[in-house]
Amino acid sequence: MILGLTRSWSLTGYAIAAILILPLFALIVQATIPDEAVFSHLFDTVLPTYISNSLLLMLQVCIGSLLIAVPAAWLVARCDFPGRRYFQWALLLPLAMPAYIVAYVYTDMLDYAGPVQRMLRQVFGWSSPQDYYFPDIRTLTGAAIMLSLVLFPYIYLLARTAFMEQSSSLLHASRIMGCNPWQSFWRLGLPMARPALAVGMALVAMETAADFATVSYFAVPTLTTAVYDTWLGYGSLSAAAKLSAIMLLVIFAMVGVERFARRKQELFQKQSKLTESDRYYLTGFKAWSSFAYCALLIVLAFLLPFMVLAGYAIDYFDESWNSRFWQYSFNSLYIAAVVSFICVVLALIMMFVRRVSPRKSDLLPSRLSSTGYAIPGTVLAIGVLVPLTYLDFAINDVYAYFDSRGPGLLFTGSVIALIFAFCVRFVAISIGSIENSYKRMSPSLDMASITMGQTPRQLLWRVHLPLLRKGIFAGALLVFIESMKELPAALLLRPIGFENLATHVFQFVSDEQLEHGALAAIVIVIVGLIPLIYLNRSLEQES
Fold first, then answer.
1. pLDDT tens per residue, range 18-74
2. What gap in Å lies between CA 92 and CA 211, rounded to an integer?
3. Sorting pLDDT into bands at 50, 70 and 90, what band is 88?
4. Which one of 148, 242, 266, 474 is at 20 to 30 Å from 303 when CA atoms are compared?
5. pLDDT level of residue 172 (50, 70, 90 thresholds)
6. Cβ neighbours for 257, distance < 8 A, ≥ 6 positions apart
7. C-alpha–C-alpha distance, residues 289 and 298, integer Å
8. What's the rounded Cα separation, in Å, for the pair 1 and 476?
9. Which contiguous run of DSSP H or E holds residue 517?
10. CB atoms within 10 A of CB 400
């Protein structure tokens, strides 16, 4: 009965998936178009550097984020020390801070003309750079440190959840066998948390590969900057598509290797809620060292950059508070609202089909649609531009055939291209959020509804939607925030004369004038705090 009722819904799910993966196929097709002159030149000169820098950057950021996040996650999940309840959510605050803003703040502080080196010269009487050594932050390692400070919460959140969900009986057994806290962590907690850590590192690697602003500001040549420069500098869309294909190959290879490495790993443990008595009570030096470590992370990754931005925003408020600021804010809010609504609707349809249909093939649309999140913004921009350009030309050709004036660049010359790209990239977030909500719903609800004669539309509207409200809200909120912050796709696909807060801030960062865009940056950060506040309430309910 369900099979027959959901056939039209199934076709709708496949149609949505086909549209969302169209940029990926367009990119592959564009990469096959010959453009030997430009690509051969890149291959013989700078391409090896681009690839090696990209791999090194992803490796360093993954290692750096892991080293930062795992100790913090273990302390918050398994130990009790002053401030633990506040740190469990405060350590997520860096997610609201764009990496290129953090990079600018620390570059301004640590450069030769910055306050740190000026103070050192005054204290020690140095007069020139030859008198002392100070590490240069504008390097690949410097970019990795900046990205690690912003991206470590991805691993922290997953690791913290994994540590808290580990069976308390195993912890008791390790204590009985004489394991101290360090041995319990190294021999038991860390190996069992490996799947969560692997997922977190995969997310960090994808975010690193997608970063454009930070590496561009630090002048570190990576595949992301290569795509941008090849497209706009050389004017070769085909060569840029070939570079994009290499990027995708690197990303998918990393994820595939990780999954292959743990293909035979199985984990069985009884889920039991962690009680206060299960935590290690830290006292004295250990307690205050833990407090200092967590506090230092928050200060370096969020509070210090935010205070600098707030100071700039206050000093330059009169210059920043103008009609352009309001227009850019409206553009950002409008695009983000439209994208979040579309993503939630598309994700809801695909997950409903996956929920109700008994066919295994109906799992495919949601999985295919989720691949867009792994595509960096610069790469996605090419994949979106290719089919929409052909569509624009086709529409205008039809108008010309009937001796009429066409609409011009209907898709690529408007915000439609930008909205489409954001939907392709962020629909995976909505899918994941709604999927988690569906997992908490008993299948017996569906059976009872079908037995009572409910159609699929009635089942979705009357039964599922009321129960999915939290997941829908969380998914829409996360997509909204990501759309506010997304920069590479916005830079490449925005219509002429269109600016949003992210592109507005980046222009000032590129010109070494962040103080003039600090107010816009503050808005992006504050809006980014909204889902973290929502997540904080969930964390408080868990602990």
1. 999 999 888 888 888 876 677 777 877 888 898 899 989 999 999 999 999 999 998
2. 19
3. confident
4. 474
5. low
6. none
7. 14
8. 32
9. helix 514-542
10. 11
Residue 280 phi/psi, 5° resolution?
A: -85, 120
* Contact in structure between 449 and 463 (CB atoms under 8 Å): yes
Surface-to-core class of residue 161, CB atoms within 10 Å of its CB (0-12 exposed, 13-18 middle, 19+ buried)? middle
Helical segments of 166-236, H only: 168-176, 181-184, 190-192, 194-210, 213-217, 223-229
CB 215 within 8 A of CB 377: no
Query: How far is Cα 456 from Cα 362, in angstroms, rounded to an integer?
Result: 15
Alpha helix stretches (DSSP H) within 7-139:
7-20, 22-31, 36-45, 47-78, 84-90, 99-110, 115-124
By C-alpha distance, which of 490, 540, 47 is closest to 246?
47
Q: Which amino acid is at 232?
A: L
DSSP one-letter code for 138 = S
Q: How far apart are the first and last CA of the chain?
A: 43
Token representation of residue 81: 């020390």
Please identify which residue in the block is written with the tokens 């899918």.
431
**Two tokens at 490?**
């916005």
Structure tokens at 515: 């103080």
CA–CA distances in Å: residue 336 to residues 264, 330, 502: 41, 10, 12
List of residues 6+ apart from 274 with CB closer than 8 A: 77, 78, 164, 168
Go through the chain and tell me how many residues it has. 543
Is residue 332 a contact partner of residue 484, using CB atoms and an 8 Å limit? yes
What is the pTM (predicted TM-score) of this model?
Answer: 0.84
Q: What does DSSP assign to residue 266? A: -
63-100 residues labelled b (16+ CB within 10 A) or e (exposed): ebbbebbbbbbbbbbbbbbeebeebbbbbbbbbbbbbb
CA angle 416, 420, 421 (to 5 degrees): 120
363, 435 Cβ separation under 8 angstroms: no
Residue type, 375: I
Backbone angles phi, psi at 235, to 5 degrees: 70, 25
β-bridge mates for residue 79, sequence order: 280
CA angle 439, 445, 447 (to 5 degrees): 115
- What is the reported pLDDT for 4? 46
Give the residue ranges of DSSP H helices in 262-322. 284-298, 304-315, 317-320
Looking at residue 80, the DSSP 8-state letter turns out to be E
Mean pLDDT, to the nearest integer, of 521-531? 85
